[in-house]
Q: What sequence folds into this?
């Protein structure tokens, strides 16, 4: 192939295939530029950057929505069947576009719309900081979109860093507050460490396998693990396997950091407590969705190859078995530790941080089940991915709702301590009902959305158990998941107890005048939590669409 | 819901209204339509709602009372499910909005709606946050009724959990001094049980396979709605038979059919050395016995009952405890008969232990309400024993009459206890409202001060005691008789427990109502019963006497359904269970069968 045809090929690929499927990211990028431009040009100074960002994000949401509907098999599809390919590599294999990409992008874009409205109403950032804040948020979201579609180690690293670096700055948004700066510093140092380890792991993997492209890596991995043979090290050498294991584990560190999975969760409580509630909402929802998608991508990408046969297929089965155990054990520990540590918390945001960690554990259980059934039972695997996608969809509303309530109450009570909420039901019954819905949904009780999510994840575990796939681990995960549900009751309920049972402090200031805007915001976020618990067929249909990526 | 559905499923609206009307009114009450301050209006709206729901349920259950037998109404004496409502809810998981009533659930539904009316009327003294109280109360009623009428396991579970949160707040906000502790304890125990139940539900769901059922069974279990025309039914059956993968189901009737197949799919899978059937049975049983409750998981009950306000104690004792017994009867046994057979000794043993322990504990109480709470533990022990006596095998014969007697007795005991325990808690509440203490040692001489009240109270307590001629007697005697066939030891113990029951109740009556004069605190507040209190107490006493002298009023409903289930399971024991007997441990069941 000569240079000319290579260039033409790349150009065609980029312009005709990749860019049309990259519209969401392009819209986000354009919005960032616009927000910055408005800040720079005096003519446009009067424009509120929140509105600019909202407009851009609305475009992104529209694109994400049309992409989702253009997928083959999409419910309520208006486009003729199969307008988009089921799976398409973009930019020469750096990214991959499939139903999971489309679903996560849609979630992220939808979240951003709600989120910008939320920050506008809650008042952080103020007008002055708006441009910085939204640039960082959008930049980070762009990274998260890339995380959801990464298909190449280099892209994975870039995407993770792109999502992380703006968040370090976001954590320090509350300028002049010591806790906020400390949170930002801790986050940055920890993040840099995790990134370094991850990069090391990536180099090891790339070095042994000779490629960074996930499907090509899987082919090579299957060959090496399956045969135990390698052209360079010789037939009997355990060398490459050990290096691969090490590389894989080191890469897991980077992913676990983004997921705030134990033992790489230490940043999470400090950052959530120190940063504004608005930042916490962003980190706990968007970041989590992207990280779960990336974890699924990596585990599936390295552990499965449709056309692998013989020894190669057996090798990949070993890889999957290994990753199921790594993910499963991490899930068990994360979930338990998150729930136990949440007990002693007196600060609402810190408690929500541990709650986020615990939920990362439940999500990882689902990932573990999905990887376990990958290959062995395609139908079950699809269902497990569907469960994850659904979980992320409901988690968006639950946690955005929780942080929105924290922010609204902070503006009213000037405190984020749980004790400050004492007797709130007397003055703000509506807010307490909303908080009850959100917190009970986080426990996972019907008829709320959180129950359905948990039900679906547990269902995939039981599905694997009854089919005899990785049964011991899945049983352990199921028992731990159930046990954790029970113990999580205490700390969520304690907040409600304080809000309702305890008498209000005597020095509580009377309610300031108009609260309808925050009220409307909280309602808009909390009503789906209830509705998705009762009528979940609609979201489930889209989650199923995301699940088809596994086939 | 198209008009055509109303024709093919006549119970769609009545049954849905019975369940959801309280929740609907609760939602309306929560909106600021009636201002918070108009407490009297809120009380009347809530009471009116419970009355409407009660009348609706009575309309369904007792058609002759209203003159006409409509297609939506209940046919007394018919064993099968009636008024089945089926609408797809979550097609991806084959979850349906599936409701229906039979002779087992219909009386419990009426009991629930009836006690809700009384409890709502008994809520008049509640003055704190009246609006919130009634909203939660009505939500609770929806949860309870939903559990009794759902035939879809997922739906059942949703309703089961819906009850928790309102109950937590009702105890925690309006309860006594240790209310917070009692509320969280109640919540925690029940949630623990329900998480286990959820695991069992999932296990059963994923091992179920509708393709194993015959077309007749599919129609009988409403997987394919019998109300469809023949062609549509055939299509539905064919679609299931043609499926490539197993077709899972949450349909309780279909799960029961599957569980009773000669080759039950649940018995085929084994996990950690025990068949999945046994696991599911145990997990479900734990979930249900926590609610019943039996020793040793009963400790939430005394706290919750004592701390809850009077009306909520009435609901707790009258209805919530029955949910456990109902679950065992409706779910555990039909779906996991193999495990039920081999673990019958466990259920019976738990029953007898609770019976004796509850009675002794009641004897030791100084607090009037706590004594009544422990009496519930003891009385629900009879229910467990009656449900558990798997005495299908008598010698070498397969006979189910003694067993049916036990289950019928257990059902009767549940309904009778619903009336007597609600009555007892109400009577304690009446006294507490006046003198603000419940110390048994400080009462005495109430008969002189409040003769009408004392007469009614003594009648209710005698009903609890099991005096012949009152409702408590029938259930206890049937259960004790039937257990003779199963294990003589247990029968003797349960017969002797009656003496303990008599001891603690008579002693309590003596200490509270008899005696020369009242010497405790607030003696001057011992005013006669108000009209409202009389209106609550009189129906309870009336029913306690009525069901004592005319038990067939209940048996007419209960017996056909219970007998059919027991007969089916007895046949199953003969054809399948006895051959595939999987002894798990050498309990008395195994020993008794062989020795005789």
A:
């Amino acid at each position: 192939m000569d240079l000319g045809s290579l260039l033409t090929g790349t150009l065609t690929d980029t312009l005709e295939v990749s860019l049309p499927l990259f519209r969401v990211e392009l819209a986000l990028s354009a919005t960032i530029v616009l927000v910055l431009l408005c800040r720079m040009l005096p003519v446009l100074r009067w424009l509120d950057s929140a509105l600019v960002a909202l407009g851009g994000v609305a475009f992104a949401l529209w694109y994400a929505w049309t992409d989702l509907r253009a997928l083959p098999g999409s419910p309520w599809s208006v486009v003729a069947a199969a307008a988009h390919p089921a799976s398409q590599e973009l930019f020469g294999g750096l990214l991959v576009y499939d139903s999971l990409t489309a679903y996560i992008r849609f979630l992220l874009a939808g979240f951003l719309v709600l989120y910008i409205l939320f920050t506008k109403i809650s008042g952080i950032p103020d007008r002055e900081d708006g441009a910085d804040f939204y640039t960082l948020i959008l930049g980070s979201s762009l990274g998260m979109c890339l995380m959801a579609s990464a298909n190449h180690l280099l892209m994975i690293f870039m995407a993770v860093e792109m999502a992380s670096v703006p968040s370090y700055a976001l954590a320090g948004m509350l300028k002049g507050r010591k806790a906020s700066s400390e949170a930002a510093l801790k986050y940055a140092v920890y993040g840099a460490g995790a990134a370094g380890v991850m990069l090391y792991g990536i180099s090891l993997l790339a070095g042994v396998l000779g490629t960074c492209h996930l499907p090509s890596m899987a082919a090579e991995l299957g060959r090496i693990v399956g045969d135990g043979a390698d052209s360079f090290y010789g037939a009997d050498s355990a060398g490459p396997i050990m290096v691969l294991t090490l590389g894989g584990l080191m890469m897991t560190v980077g992913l676990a950091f983004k997921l705030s999975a134990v033992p790489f969760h230490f940043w999470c409580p400090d950052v959530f407590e120190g940063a504004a509630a608005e930042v916490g909402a962003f980190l706990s929802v968007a970041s989590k969705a992207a990280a779960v998608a990336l974890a699924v991508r990596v585990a599936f990408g390295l552990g499965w190859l449709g056309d692998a046969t013989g020894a190669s297929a057996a090798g990949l089965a070993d890889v999957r078995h290994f990753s199921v155990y790594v993910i499963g054990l991490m899930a068990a520990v994360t979930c338990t530790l998150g729930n136990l540590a949440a007990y002693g918390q007196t600060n609402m945001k810190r408690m929500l941080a541990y709650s986020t960690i615990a939920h990362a554990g439940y999500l990882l259980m689902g990932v573990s089940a999905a990887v376990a059934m990958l290959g062995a039972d395609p139908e079950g695997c699809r269902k497990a991915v569907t469960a994850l996608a659904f979980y992320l969809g409901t988690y968006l509303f639950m946690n955005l709702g929780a942080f929105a309530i924290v922010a609204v109450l902070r503006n009213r009570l000037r405190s984020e301590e749980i004790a400050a909420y004492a007797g709130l039901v007397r003055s703000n019954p509506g807010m307490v009902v909303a908080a009850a819905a959100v917190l009970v949904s986080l426990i996972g009780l019907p008829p709320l959305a959180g129950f359905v999510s948990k039900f679906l994840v547990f269902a995939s575990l039981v599905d694997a158990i009854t089919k005899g796939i990785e049964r011991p681990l899945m049983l352990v995960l199921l028992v731990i998941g159930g046990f954790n549900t029970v113990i999580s009751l205490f700390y969520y309920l304690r907040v409600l107890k304080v809000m309702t049972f305890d008498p209000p402090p005597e020095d509580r200031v009377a309610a300031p005048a108009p609260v309808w805007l925050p009220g409307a915001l909280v309602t808009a976020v909390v009503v789906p939590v209830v509705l998705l618990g009762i009528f979940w067929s609609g979201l489930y249909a889209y989650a199923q669409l995301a699940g088809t990526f596994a086939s | 819901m198209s008009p055509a559905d109303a024709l093919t499923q006549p119970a769609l609206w009545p049954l849905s209204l019975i369940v959801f009307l309280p929740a609907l009114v609760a939602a309306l009450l929560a909106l600021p339509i009636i201002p918070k301050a108009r407490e009297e209006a809120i009380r009347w709206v809530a009471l009116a709602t419970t009355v409407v729901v009660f009348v609706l349920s009575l309309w369904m259950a007792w058609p002759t009372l209203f003159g006409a037998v409509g297609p939506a109404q209940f046919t007394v004496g018919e064993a099968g499910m009636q008024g089945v409502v089926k609408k797809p809810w979550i097609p991806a998981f084959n979850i349906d909005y599936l409701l229906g009533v039979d002779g087992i659930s219909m009386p419990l539904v009426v009991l629930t709606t009836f006690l809700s009316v009384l409890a709502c009327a008994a809520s008049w003294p509640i003055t704190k946050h009246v609006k919130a109280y009634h909203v939660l109360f009505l939500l609770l009623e929806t949860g309870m009724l939903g559990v009794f009428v759902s035939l879809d396991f997922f739906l059942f579970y949703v309703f089961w959990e819906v009850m928790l949160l309102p109950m937590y707040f009702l105890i925690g906000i309006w309860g006594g001094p240790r209310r917070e502790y009692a509320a969280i304890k109640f919540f925690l125990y029940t949630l623990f049980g329900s998480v286990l139940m959820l695991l069992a539900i999932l296990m059963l769901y994923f091992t179920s396979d509708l393709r194993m059922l015959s077309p007749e069974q599919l129609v009988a279990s409403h997987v394919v709605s019998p109300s469809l025309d023949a062609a549509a039914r055939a299509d539905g059956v064919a679609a299931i038979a043609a499926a490539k993968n197993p077709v899972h189901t949450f349909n309780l009737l279909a799960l029961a059919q599957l569980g009773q197949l000669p080759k039950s799919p649940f018995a085929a899978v084994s996990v950690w050395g025990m068949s999945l059937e046994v696991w599911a049975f145990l997990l479900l049983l734990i979930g249900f016995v926590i609610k019943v409750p039996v020793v040793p998981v009963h400790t939430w009950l005394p706290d919750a009952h004592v701390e809850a306000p009077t009306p909520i104690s009435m609901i707790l004792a009258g209805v919530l405890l029955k949910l456990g017994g109902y679950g065992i009867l409706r779910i555990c046994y039909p779906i996991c008969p193999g495990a039920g057979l081999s673990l019958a000794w466990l259920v019976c043993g738990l029953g007898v232990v609770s019976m004796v322990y509850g009675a002794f504990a009641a004897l030791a109480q100084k607090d009037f309400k706590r004594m009544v709470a422990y009496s519930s533990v003891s009385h629900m022990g009879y229910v467990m024993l009656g449900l558990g006596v798997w005495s299908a095998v008598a010698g070498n014969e397969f006979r189910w009459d003694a067993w049916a007697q036990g289950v019928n007795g257990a059902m009767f005991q549940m309904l009778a206890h619903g009336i007597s325990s609600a009555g007892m808690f109400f009577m304690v509440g009446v006294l507490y409202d006046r003198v603000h203490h419940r110390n048994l040692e400080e009462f005495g001489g109430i008969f002189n001060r409040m003769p009408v009240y004392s007469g009614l109270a003594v009648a209710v307590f005698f009903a609890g005691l099991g005096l012949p001629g009152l409702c408590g007697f029938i259930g206890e005697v049937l259960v004790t008789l039937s257990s003779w066939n199963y294990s003589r030891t247990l029968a003797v113990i349960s017969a002797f427990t009656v003496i303990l029951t008599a001891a603690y109740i008579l002693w309590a009556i003596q200490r509270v109502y008899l005696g020369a004069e009242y010497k405790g605190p607030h003696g001057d507040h011992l005013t006669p019963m108000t009209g409202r209190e009389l209106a609550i107490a009189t129906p309870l006493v009336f029913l306690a006497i009525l069901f004592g002298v005319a038990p067939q009023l209940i048996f007419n409903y209960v017996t056909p359904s219970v007998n059919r289930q027991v007969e089916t399971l007895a046949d199953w024991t003969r054809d399948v269970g006895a051959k595939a007997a999987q002894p798990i441990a050498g309990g008395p069941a195994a020993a008794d069968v062989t020795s005789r």
